[in-house]
Amino acid sequence: MPVPKxxxxxxxxxxRRANHDKVKHIPNYVxxxxxxxxxxxxxxxxxxxxxxYKGRLVVAVKSKATAEAAPAEEKK
Length: 76
Prior knowledge:
By secondary structure, the protein is α+β, with helices and mostly antiparallel strands. The chain has helices at 10-18, 64-75, and strands spanning 29-31, 40-42, 52-53, 56-57.
């Protein structure tokens, strides 16, 4: 089995290990395709604010007012 001919320095070893936790990709934010929303969202994902993707409604998103009122209605 092959064996390294010379010992690697601590700097070279540590530089190699430092790349393990490096952030490789920062998500690309684009404006939402919904003309009424235009909130920044990650590209190729459904908008978390309005539920639109590629110019059409894909997921129904509850508004904050509706989400807060829903638990109060269930308790009655």
